[in-house]
Fold:
Amino acid sequence: MASLIYNSCPDDVVRQNINFVSDTFKAMLVTSAYTPNKDTDTKRSNVTNEVTGTGYTAGGTAVTATVAKDTATDRETITFSNPSWASSTITAAALVIYKSRGGASSADELVAYVDFGGNVSSTNGTFTATFSSPLTFQN
Structure:
């Protein structure tokens, strides 16, 4: 499965449900058993098969969004900080970025699915996900 932006994300931005400048975002790890549906998965409650393991807390960890506008190329890019889990023993195939509202998972808007291209593990060490490219909205 390739990485993707959930189709609900641009709609949530337009409807002011997501603000990349001021909202809180989290990254949660999932196993290969989760197959994202970019058309119908809209909330964190749609995401299944979150990882479990030592050093990992359900719901994931906070990530910071940085927004940059480039008028020369008519683009807006959103870059997220690299999430990490110290002293962890976990195996994950991907991560999901979502807006965290701090309550029910049915309220948290999905942003993106990042496929690792296979299982990645840590054994009593730091698990870090590094993003290779930002989210890009282009006119």
About this structure: The longest helix spans residues 8-14. Strands lie at 4-5, 25-30, 61-63, 65-70, 75-80, 84-99, 110-128, 135-138.
